[in-house]
C-alpha cells in the first residue's frame, strides 16, 4: 500500500476550494457503487444457478430417458440419471455459495461506509469552519480598509483647514481625526486577530485533510484488494463447478465403457425369446384327391410340395353331351 499519493496530489491553491477532497470522495463513491454492482451480479448469478439446478433436477427426476433399456446400457443410464441429479444439486449449492459471497461484499461495503462517515463528518466540519472564518476575516479586512480610508479623509480635512481661523471647526476636525485613528487601530487588531484565527483553522483543516487522504487511500487499497480477491474467488468457484461436473460426467463415461453390445443382445434374447423352430412351408392339397396321411397344415415337407398328382381323366369325352354332368346336374342348357 502506498499511503502517500492521495495527500500529495489533491490540493488547490484556492483556500475556499475543496476540489481535491471532493474528487477523492467521488472516486470512493464510484468504488462503493462498483462493489454494489458486483454484489448484485453475484445475487443474480446465484438466482440463475439455482433456477438451472432446480430445472435440471426436475428434468432428471421426472423426464423418462431410456426407461425400457436393459442390462449394461440400463446400468449406464441409471448412473447417468444419478450423476445429472448430482450436477443439479451442485449448481444449487453453488447458488448458496454465491449468495454468501454477495453477503460478504455487502458487509465490506457497509463497514467502509461507517469508517468513512467519521472522517467525512470531521472534514465537513473543518470545511465549514474554514469557510466561515474566511468570511469573517474578509469582513474584518473590509472594515479595516474602510477605517483607513476614513482616517485618510480626516487627515486631508485637517490639512485643508490649516488656514481656517474658526477654532471650533478645527477642533471638530481634530477630534474626528483622533477618532478615526483609534478606529483604524481597533479594526487593524480585529483584522489581525481574524487572520491569525483563519491561519490556525487553515492549519487544522490542512492536517485533517492529510489524515483524511491517508484514511481514504488505505480504504481504497483495501477495497481494490477485496474486490480483486472476490472476483478471483468467483472464478475459482466457477472453475470448481466445471471440475465437479466433469468428474460426475466421467462416472457416466466409465459406466458407458462397461456397456457390452453382445451382452445386451444376448440378455434380450434370453429374456424374450419365443422359440427356435421357424414355420414349415404350407403343403399343396388337391381338392379332389386329398392325400392320405397328409401332413397337418403347416407341416408339409419340401418333397411333398414338389410332387403333383395328375388330374383325373373324365369318363365322358368332351363332345359327349353328358360331359358336364355332375350328380345328374348339367351345366349345359337343354
UniProtKB/TrEMBL annotation:
An annotated Gene Ontology molecular function: actin filament binding
Pfam families registered for this protein in UniProt: FCH
Cross-referenced Gene3D superfamilies: Arfaptin homology (AH) domain/BAR domain (1.20.1270.60)
Compartments where found: Cytoplasm; Membrane
Keywords attached to this entry: Coiled coil, Cytoplasm, Membrane, Phosphoprotein
Superkingdom of source: Eukaryota
Coiled coil: 91-118
Protein name (record): Proline-serine-threonine phosphatase-interacting protein 2
Source species: Monodon monoceros (Narwhal)
Lineage, uppermost ranks: Eukaryota, Metazoa, Chordata, Craniata, Vertebrata
Gene name for this UniProt entry: PSTPIP2
Amino acid at each position: 500500500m502506498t499511503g502517500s499519493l492521495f495527500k500529495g496530489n489533491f490540493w488547490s491553491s484556492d483556500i475556499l476550494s475543496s476540489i481535491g477532497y471532493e474528487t477523492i470522495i467521488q472516486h470512493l463513491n464510484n468504488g462503493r457503487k462498483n462493489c454494489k454492482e458486483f454484489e448484485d451480479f453475484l445475487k443474480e448469478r446465484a438466482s440463475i444457478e439455482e433456477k438451472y439446478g432446480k430445472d435440471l433436477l426436475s428434468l432428471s427426476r421426472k423426464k423418462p430417458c431410456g426407461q425400457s433399456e436393459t442390462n449394461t446400457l440400463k446400468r449406464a443410464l441409471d448412473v447417468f440419471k444419478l450423476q445429472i441429479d448430482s450436477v443439479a444439486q451442485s449448481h444449487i449449492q453453488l447458488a448458496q455459495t454465491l449468495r454468501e459471497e454477495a453477503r460478504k461484499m455487502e458487509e465490506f461495503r457497509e463497514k467502509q461506509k461507517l469508517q468513512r462517515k467519521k472522517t467525512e463528518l470531521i472534514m465537513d466540519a473543518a470545511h465549514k469552519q474554514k469557510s466561515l472564518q474566511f468570511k469573517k476575516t474578509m469582513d474584518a479586512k473590509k472594515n479595516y480598509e474602510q477605517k483607513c480610508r476614513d482616517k485618510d479623509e480626516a487627515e486631508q480635512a485637517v490639512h485643508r483647514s490649516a488656514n481656517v481661523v474658526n477654532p471650533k471647526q478645527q477642533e471638530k476636525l481634530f477630534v474626528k481625526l483622533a477618532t478615526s485613528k483609534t478606529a483604524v487601530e481597533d479594526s487593524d487588531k480585529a483584522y489581525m486577530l481574524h487572520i491569525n484565527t483563519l491561519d490556525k483553522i487553515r492549519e487544522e483543516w490542512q492536517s485533517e485533510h492529510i489524515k483524511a487522504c491517508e484514511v481514504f487511500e488505505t480504504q481504497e487499497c483495501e477495497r481494490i484488494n477485496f474486490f480483486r480477491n472476490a472476483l478471483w474467488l468467483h472464478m475459482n468457484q466457477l472453475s470448481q463447478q466445471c471440475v465437479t461436473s466433469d468428474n460426475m460426467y466421467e462416472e457416466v463415461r466409465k459406466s458407458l465403457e462397461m456397456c457390452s453390445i453382445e451382452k445386451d443382445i444376448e440378455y434380450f434374447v434370453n429374456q424374450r425369446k419365443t422359440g427356435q423352430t421357424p414355420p414349415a412351408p404350407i403343403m399343396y392339397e388337391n381338392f379332389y384327391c386329398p392325400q392320405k396321411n397328409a401332413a397337418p397344415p403347416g407341416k408339409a415337407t419340401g418333397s411333398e410340395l414338389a410332387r403333383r398328382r395328375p388330374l383325373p381323366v373324365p369318363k365322358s369325352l368332351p363332345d359327349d353331351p353328358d360331359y358336364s354332368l355332375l350328380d345328374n346336374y348339367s351345366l349345359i342348357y337343354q
